[in-house]
Amino acid sequence: MDGIFVKNVAISIPEIKNIIKKSKEFISDVHLMSVNPEEQIKQLLGYVNFATIHFESRNYAQIKEIISKYSRKIKIGIAIKPETKIEQIYDLLPEIQLVLIMSVEPGKGGQAFIENTYKKIEELSKIIQENNYKIIIQVDGGIKDFNSKKVFDSGADVIVVGTFLAEKPTKLKIKKLIN
């Protein structure tokens, strides 16, 4: 979060690099909520597995250029805001490895899950299957124990859970998310 694309600011690139150095056994995906994702991707090359940029952060031609320029060096993901339609990213799907569907407005934790996200997940999952794309579907925002199963059943491969776990992380909460 750069304070421009969304109002909040999150961890810095040096902090990300430090975290990655200490946790190399994990797959790393950095969600870049930034108006200048290309500059951040350059700094993250060699450190992270995935760099996920927001479709809405640049114009379409600039997003295509970033994907073309960096997709051989790092796995590129595209994040879409709740109001962005799946059709808007159809042409990008053959070139990316991950789609992050935001199920809340990006930039602030603790929001409620937006219900029409299930249909977006199903639609994207169907397109991926029909075209035999190798794309991970990730969903972020408002994920709790009572909706995680439906998110997975709709076609998500990965969920991002923040506030639900941060409030009081327990093994039981984690089990409820994945069962």
Automatic annotation (TrEMBL):
The keyword Metal-binding applies. InterPro entries: Aldolase_TIM (IPR013785), Ribul_P_3_epim-like (IPR000056), RibuloseP-bd_barrel (IPR011060). Keywords: Isomerase, Metal-binding. One of its GO terms (molecular function) is D-ribulose-phosphate 3-epimerase activity. The keyword Metal-binding applies. Its EC number is 5.1.3.1. It comes from the Bacteria. GO terms for biological process: carbohydrate metabolic process. This is Ribulose-phosphate 3-epimerase. It comes from Mesomycoplasma hyopneumoniae (Mycoplasma hyopneumoniae).
